[in-house]
Design goal:
Layout (H helix, E strand, L loop, with lengths): L3 E3 L9 H8 L2 E5 H5 L7 H11 L11 E5 H8 L5 H16 L1 E5 L6 E5 L1 E6 L4 E6 L10 H4 L2 E5 H6 L3 H12 L5 E5 H7 L7 H19 L2 E10 L2 E11 L20
Parallel strand pairs: 1-3
Antiparallel strand pairs: 2-8, 3-7, 4-5, 6-7, 9-11, 10-11
């Protein structure tokens, strides 16, 4: 059995139509991975992981190698052309292979360390072979059977330019069925990687801008509500609504493997 997913290589003169088709794939993750994993990734690293996850089919039983090229990844994700941008993507792949994070074990008996990427092999002819870390399998495979997962179009996250917008969007998606998601201020700031800042600085510098970008560019509208103890903000809630189709500027095609509701 061939355990490699082959995507359109640079040798097939990847045209705009193929690039656009790649963007219509969906990203699906268990809500534990979205909400509970301690994620400390850059905007580029977040997009690389979601691109790899988008190659998983709903009926896959194991994480497979993805055969591609760095040039192709840069085309699809909008990272830019040329040697400098290829180097930046290589650096991001190296970082992903080294970054560990805590996640709840599959049997829920404790926490364990996982990494994002298990294999990165770059060939001199331009090809690349990538594989997600095996510890991620329970949070990415057979999700339709398990339920309690989040899915969204790859195209949407490509359009977002801030890591905070990316994190906020997937968090909001995971809470869409309830219409709300939130937590204590420290929990929210830890999710975004800034528990060291005061609420005022964090909100003004990062969160407000992320909400604005998500509301402008995606299929969601987020309203932030604050719970206070005196003057101190102690709790944050995001009220989430899905925009009507006519409110969304983009018109996504039907993806090859559609996790999303019609």
């Amino acid at each position: 059995m061939d355990h490699t997913i082959k995507v359109n290589s640079i040798y097939q003169n990847m045209n705009q139509e193929v690039i656009e088709l790649n963007k219509e794939y969906t990203v699906a993750k268990d809500n534990q991975l979205v909400q509970k994993a301690k994620i400390n990734l850059t905007e580029k690293e977040l997009k690389l992981i979601d691109w790899l996850i988008s190659k998983i089919k709903p009926n896959d039983e194991e994480l497979l190698q993805v055969e591609t090229s760095v040039a192709e990844i840069n085309l699809v994700l909008g990272f830019g052309n040329g040697g400098k941008n290829i180097k930046h993507t290589k650096d991001a792949l190296l970082n992903l292979s080294n970054k560990g994070f805590w996640i709840q074990s599959e049997d829920e008996s404790g926490i364990e360390i996982a990494r994002w990427i298990d294999e990165v092999s770059l060939k001199y002819d331009g090809k690349a072979v990538l594989k997600l870390h095996s510890k991620l399998a329970p949070y990415l495979l057979q999700l339709a059977e398990k339920g309690n997962y989040t899915s969204y179009y790859l195209r949407t996250i490509i359009s977002l330019k801030s890591k905070y917008s990316l994190l906020l969007y997937q968090l909001a998606k995971s809470g869409l069925h309830n219409g709300v998601i939130g937590g204590e201020v420290k929990e929210i700031q830890e999710y975004f990687g800034h528990k060291d800042l005061t609420w005022g600085v964090f909100n003004g510098r990062y969160l407000k801008k992320a909400i604005e970008e998500v509301n402008t560019k995606t299929d969601l509208h987020i309203e932030m509500l604050l719970g206070k103890n005196g003057r101190n903000v102690v709790r944050v809630e995001f009220r989430i609504t899905k925009k009507l189709r006519k409110e969304v500027s983009e018109k996504p095609q039907v993806p090859m493997y559609n996790w999303l509701e019609s």
